[in-house]
Amino acid sequence: MIRHLFKLIWNRKKSNFLLISEIFFCFLVLFAVLSLVVYNVRNYSKPLGFDYDNVWLLTARADIDSTELRIAVEEQLTQKIRSYGEVEGTALVSSNSPFAFSQMKVWAKVGDGPRILAENLDVEDTFAEVMQLNVSAGRWFTKQDDAARYNPVVINRVLQQELFGDESAIGKLITRDDSSQVQVIGVVDHYRGSSEYAEESPVIFTRINQQREAVFWGEILIRVKPGTGIAFEERMVKDLSGIAKNWTLELTTVEKMRQNKEKLSMVPMIAMAVVCGFLIFNVALGLFGVLWYNISRRNGEIGLRRALGASANQVYRQFIGEVLVLATFGLVLGVAFAIQFPMLQVFEVESMVYFIALGIAVGLIYLLAIGCAFYPSRQAAAIHPAMALHEE
Amino acid sequence: MLKNYLKIAWKVLLRRKFFTFISLFGISFTLMVLMVATALYDHAFGPQMPEKDLDRILFVNMMQERKDGGYQMSGPPSYTFLDRKVRTLTTPEMVSINSIFQTVNSYIDNRKLALDIKFTDSEFWQILDFEFVEGGPFGPQEVRNAQRVAVINEATRQNYFGNTTAVGKTIVADQVSYTVVGVVKDVPVLRLHSYADMWVPLSLRTEDYSSTSLRGEYFATIKAHSSSDIDNIKNEFAVILQDVERQHPEKGTKLYSYPDSIVEGFARTFLGNDDDTGMAKLYAILAAAVLLFMLLPAINLVNINISRIMERSSEIGVRKAFGATSSTIIGQFIIENIFLTLLGGLLGFLLSAGVLWLINDSGVIVYADLGLNLRVFALGLFFCLVFGLVSGVYPAYKMSRLHTVAALKGGNQ
């Protein structure tokens, strides 16, 4: 039966060429859009590793050149913020704080091993508390690290895997940017600070040690009590402006930054999905029209088959089968093309993402083909043999 | 005769409503998506308030320092560099230095307004064509005296003052009071070099004027005497930059900075590499995207058209039997096809206008003012016509050459 169907389609390959190429391109478009969607959804469903509710970010831009003075003012700002009852804690952080647009990459390497590019965050001891990080192995920074011989760092699981494999990383040394050596004292399971839709990438948390090297950071994360609102924010900013005269102070919530990042991922995805949806709908209509016409032209053939004893159901199954075979021709071409992406690793994306997208795309195309063939085939099957033969 | 053809065409369209719907839907929606995409492109890169004379304006927005050992730092250039090296260029007509915008907070009636503030000089207002709703820009006098004056946009006026005039009133941002001297129409945020909610004199910023660093937080906007001068400016800039590179305190540091148009700046950021702007790559990607997008509807249109014509083979046969020549039959189909395409084009036009209005109205894009690009619309319509004619008229032509009897029987033999 199936061989017969293939033969039928093959014999009319010239007239079916356009339909097959339509299915082929339709599949490619679906595959591309689904890959993007699957990639984003998979990342979104993984844990972030921190909690951003009720966390604010204060960015201070100084108007003085002297670093000592800047640091002194920053110290005053921090103390003022901590003195409020509404504030649970603060932490200095480098400009690549959670959901910020800036990045700071460093090369990390162990001994003569491979160099890994990792995101470097400079954070104060209180960062773990403010962002509610979960240290799964070793420990987070404490006051006792002030006197440590090597600068202590905490890394995430991904970086540990890439640098040390399955071995424990605690106490080991990492060479950063080919110059300074730092010591791993803890590992966090997850930290995806760049975006909810981004893959987890290697991260190093470096301890801010103002005693050893005084730096003006300019960014302060503030955890406030739940329900703290705009009235407190205004009061605090007013007070802080009194301390840092002529400075530019910008206060925003990490939630707001997350929304900005989300927009950046969602807008292209939604735009592509809408365009893709329109294309598919267009193709579905076209396919439906052409199938309808093609099938209605074969009235004579159907009448003959019915007269020779084929049941309506058999006729119906034949037409659905033909359309499925047609779709298969297009899909074989399409899959042969699409499979190159995971095989050649065109983009650095897990192969699993492509395979899932491929599976869904194939399923959708078959559904589309059946959906479009359903009504015309039913009509064909319902033809009375006498009528059909009479028409001929 | 023409009237007859149009009448037939209309009747044919009505007879097979479903096929008509598919064709019209395909044409109009393809045109619509194409129109929205070009409107977005124009919104980002085309001439638009306030950057109208785009072929005469260049922007310097990046300074990259590359040290020995592959260590590189990049960011906007510093005030010192722009003031000493770019403002002194001899080829441009005018140079403006303005800061990148920063967000500051303003509180009013227990609400927070996050305002994007930009520090500019007075040349800024001469180079760019802002549309003032009331008042006017601040001049060299105000900038020299570092007066606390501000130009705000319409949205800020609405949010801060409500439905009244704002000129002469005071607006407090980041705990500093400014007197409003002018209100301008909203500038889209994609116009990075001019966008802000509030513009204030550059001299109000006191920081880093003395710093010798090459990187800072400023842009330069350069206006050329004429569009043919653009290359001269780029060359002069390159010479000056080499000079700066030689005088760099750290030997072996390479500097990369260019005066770019908007599209060049965008292409360089994402696709560029050293002296290559990445424009070729950008255009290749755009062309490929448009081609891929048009391909499916085109195949679909061809497919549907062929089916339609096949269906009418007996009609062609009858007409031939009564003595119609090939050219008459083809003439009829050409007119029918043009009629259908134009109908789809009209629908597409209305649809795109509606969708653009919706986007503008919904505020998905901040301060968007998207408009139809008629040139691209005409081009899209032209392609629809070509595909329509190729797919609709060629089979008709083939059939009109058939033997009358064969055509009468369905034309498949």
Structural key phrases:
A: alpha+beta, 2 domains, 6-stranded mixed beta barrel, 4-stranded antiparallel sheet, elongated, B: 413 residues, alpha+beta, 7-stranded mixed sheet, membrane (chain A)
Question: What oligomeric state do the depicted chains represent?
Answer: heterodimer
Number of strands of chain B: 14
**Mean pLDDT metric of chain B:** 84
Shape of chain B: elongated
| Estimated structural class of chain A | alpha+beta
Number of domains of chain A: 2
**Secondary structure: number of strands of chain A:** 11
Count of helices of chain A?
A: 12
Largest sheet of chain B: 7 strands, mixed
Number of helices of chain B: 13
Fraction of residues in helix of chain A: 40-55%
Between the first and last Cα atoms of chain A, what is the distance in angstroms? 26 Å
- The structural domain count of chain B equals 2
Radius of gyration of chain A: 31 Å
For the largest beta-sheet of chain A, the strand count, sense and barrel status come to:
6 strands, mixed, barrel
Please write out the topology.
The complex is a heterodimer of chains A (392) and B (413).
Chain A: H1 2-11, H2 13-44, E1 55-61, H3 67-83, E2 87-92, E3 105-109, E4 116-123, H4 127-131, E5 135-138, E6 151-156, H5 157-164, E7 173-176, E8 180-188, E9 203-207, E10 219-224, H6 230-243, E11 248-253, H7 254-296, H8 299-307, H9 312-338, H10 340-344, H11 351-381, H12 385-391
Parallel strand pairs in A: 4-9, 6-8
Antiparallel strand pairs in A: 1-10, 1-11, 2-10, 3-4, 3-7, 5-8, 6-9, 7-8
Helix pairs in contact in A: 1-9, 2-7, 2-9, 2-11, 3-6, 7-11, 8-12, 9-11
Chain B: H1 2-15, H2 17-45, E1 57-60, E2 63-66, E3 72-75, H3 79-86, E4 94-99, E5 102-108, E6 111-120, H4 123-127, E7 132-135, H5 140-144, E8 149-153, H6 154-161, E9 170-173, E10 176-184, E11 198-201, E12 218-223, H7 230-247, E13 254-256, E14 259-260, H8 262-270, H9 279-311, H10 313-321, H11 326-362, H12 374-400, H13 404-409
Parallel strand pairs in B: 6-11, 8-10
Antiparallel strand pairs in B: 1-12, 1-14, 2-3, 2-13, 4-12, 5-6, 7-10, 8-11, 9-10
Subcellular location (chain B): Cell membrane
GO molecular function (chain B): transmembrane transporter activity
Transmembrane segments (chain B): 21-41, 282-302, 338-360, 372-394
